[in-house]
Amino acid sequence: MSMFLGIDLGTGSCKAAVLDGEGRVCGAGQGTYPAGEGPRRWNEQPPEALLEGIVQASRQALMAARVSARQIEAVSVGGAMHSLLVLDGSERPLTGVITWADGRGAHQAGQYRNTPQGLALYQRTGCPVHGMYPLYKILWLRDEQPGVFAQAARYVTAKEYLLHALTGEWMVDYSIAAGHGSMNTHTLRWDAEALALAGLREEQFSPLAPPQYLLKLKDTPLVAQAGLLPGTPLVLGCSDAVNSSLGAGAVLPNRATLMVGTSGALRVVARQPILHPQGKNWCYAIDSTHWLVGGAINNGGVALDWLRGVFSRAGGAEMTFDAVAALAGEVPPGAGGVLCLPFFAGERSPNWNLNARGVFFGLTLEHGPAHLARALLEGVAFRFRSLAEMLAEVGCEPAEIRASGGFIHSPLWLEIMASVLNRQLFLPEWGETSSWGAAAWAMIGMGAVADLEAAGQLVKVNGRATPDPEQVPVYDHLYALYTRLYENLLPSFEAVARFQHSTGR
């Protein structure tokens, strides 16, 4: 039987899955690498560490599936969006892999935010004006590191760097390029005006291609180390965001994917570009007939991890995520009136405010750690209600929501999310949706399944989370307070951000 290997090059780890021709998972693996690091607001990873991650993940998946490299009909690679690696004329890295979490481009993006030029750029590229996008990080390099900017011969993403190590080719799929800020989401070409904004040339970027584009693994050290065979077809594939939606079976227009991992996102697959008149949502091309439309948050699991770390340090012993969730379950819905605005890493959709900051509001002497834990879980859920309202504004209110990411392992968080949204959440059988989606592109590229929609139909649902009718009115009331609190704090967010920047925090 033919087998297909999917590799998901994420921000925190590399995951792999082997699927058979029916879409069943036969084996999985994971490779780890260091989280991003650097000076304040920087977030870079060593590129060679990412290559080591794929070796671990691929070998583990093949071993778990008990298949040889000869049984792999095709491979496909997915990758985290919005990364940037600068190479010189000899294709040597001039920077680390700058991740989506890097905040260096905030000032440069701020110069175009809420301007006619910025809105026009959004309408062409589908990328809201925000420092997360590589375009604004390149502007930062131009302004702050002119030596690096002058030497830059090629700008690539982590996925492109990996593909080159596997195939010897420079190529980028539409969905990865769409997250750069410089690809026209209508024409599927590099946008001349966006490139001119930063003084860039089209030849500094990889050729664009659809996800079904076929390459071949070359006889390279990485291919051998990953346990793969030269000559094996490699299907170009898509970003981790697209793959997550595909792996959740949410590629039909009436389905959405709600994902909470380190960050989070709510997205739908549309048949045409859909753009918000105020630039709130993003719109990333998948191919010439599909676009990924939605919004993302910076503070998903990373916010819970922050609170877990605070509790661990205060208690002198390491707390697990399950322990924090259990603590949250000790108090009733509404957390005793404590509200959390979980903007610990700034904000993306729908307001794209990097200066937003984390807040716990409503504390009294009667509140304790359990209230903070529950308020944080509820605050993240409120963020998704904001995203759902944003999608409704552009006519993308789904009939069904599929849930994915690490949060699906917490029954309490699932119940909170369902009750805040007042919607059922359906759980796919295989939780690692991005690696499943990557392997599905290998199937699509080789004709094992007809197309994106047919691949999505292979996904089975094996659970659901249902709103608690007693909790829904509680959360309706608190969400209104949460929204008003955010609006009232906007001037204070700006003031405290200026103070923090001035003091190097």
TrEMBL record:
Family: Belongs to the FGGY kinase family.
Entries under Gene3D superfamilies matching the protein: 3.30.420.40
Sequence ranges assigned to domain Carbohydrate kinase FGGY N-terminal in this UniProt record: 3-247
Name assigned to this protein: Gluconate kinase
Keywords linked to the UniProt accession: Kinase, Transferase
GO molecular function: kinase activity; phosphotransferase activity, alcohol group as acceptor
The species this protein was found in: Anaerolinea thermolimosa
One family name in Pfam for this protein: FGGY_N
Listed CDD domains: ASKHA_NBD_FGGY_GntK (cd07770)
A biological process from GO: carbohydrate metabolic process
InterPro entries hit by this protein: ATPase_NBD, Carb_kinase_FGGY, Carb_kinase_FGGY_CS, FGGY_C, FGGY_Carb_Kinase, FGGY_N
Residues in Carbohydrate kinase FGGY C-terminal domain copies: 258-445
